[in-house]
Design a protein that fits this description.
Layout (H helix, E strand, L loop, with lengths): L4 E11 L3 E8 L12 E2 L2 E3 L6 H13 L6 E3 L2 H4 L4 E9 L12 E7 L10 H13 L4
């Protein structure tokens, strides 16, 4: 039996005063790219033996400079993905928090939920839509 790749997604959001979600643009795709995986929330792979919650908090800190607790969210869409095991977390970001990007990303934007449509592939956006619903932010 082959082992599935394991990763985490961190749905970082704030009220400022309306609900906004933090999206990061991956630097390796080029500054003008808007295709698959160009815009995502923080996240990444688990290190050997690392529990998913620790990975979520580490990825959030490494990619944005934000040290926040992450709360696990149930995601049937993430669970249905073949070949990858994705754990979904949420982190509420204080409105005045400062984002400091790692070299993995060239820019970030705080976007309204309707703007999550730019996140591709489609199942990734569906995970974000689920998170909005679970958190009562939709």
């Amino acid at each position: 039996m082959s082992r599935r790749e394991a990763g985490v997604v961190v749905f970082a959001w704030r009220r400022s005063p309306k609900v906004e979600v933090l999206l990061l643009h991956r630097s390796h795709v080029g500054t003008e790219c808007d295709g698959d995986w160009a815009w995502t929330t923080p996240g990444g792979g688990l290190e050997a033996g690392e529990p998913p919650r620790e990975a979520a908090e580490r990825e959030l800190r490494e990619e944005t400079g934000l040290s926040l607790p992450c709360v696990v969210l149930d995601s049937p869409v993430a669970a249905a993905q073949k070949g990858i095991e994705v754990s979904v977390f949420a982190a509420e970001v204080p409105p005045d928090a400062r984002v400091t990007l790692s070299v993995e990303h060239d820019r970030y934007e705080w976007v309204r939920p309707a703007e999550l449509a730019r996140c591709l592939p489609d199942w990734v956006r569906e995970v974000y839509d689920e998170a909005l619903g679970v958190l009562g932010l939709a």
